[in-house]
Amino acid sequence: KSDLENVFKNTQNKNFIKLSAQKDITLLKEELQNYLNSFDSEGIMVSSLDLINACKISSEAIFRAKGLLEESSLELFAFELNLAINELARFTKDFQRDEILDEMFGNFCLGK
């Protein structure tokens, strides 16, 4: 509101965009686009703490599963793999476990 005192005058942050609800918001769109483009496109952008934790748990489980597979501990490998799948499944679409297994055994050299 233009009739209120500017509480941001003395701020240390210079990344403010002055906007008006009655004017074009093109500048805001451009600044948001620039901000989003500043991230490494090869990296992963995760938006919630729950999803970050699920990714971390899944990643650790997959790492353990890889070691167990190399040791031919197939039962423990399956346990860790299921843990990883279940963590990510909390945030993804429903899936059939057979789809994943078919993909893994069809395209990767597992158990050899």
TrEMBL record:
Q: Where is the MnmE helical domain?
A: 9-109
Species the sequence originates in: Campylobacter jejuni
SUPFAM superfamilies, sorted = TrmE connector domain
Q: Would you tell me the protein name for this molecule?
A: tRNA uridine-5-carboxymethylaminomethyl(34) synthesis GTPase MnmE
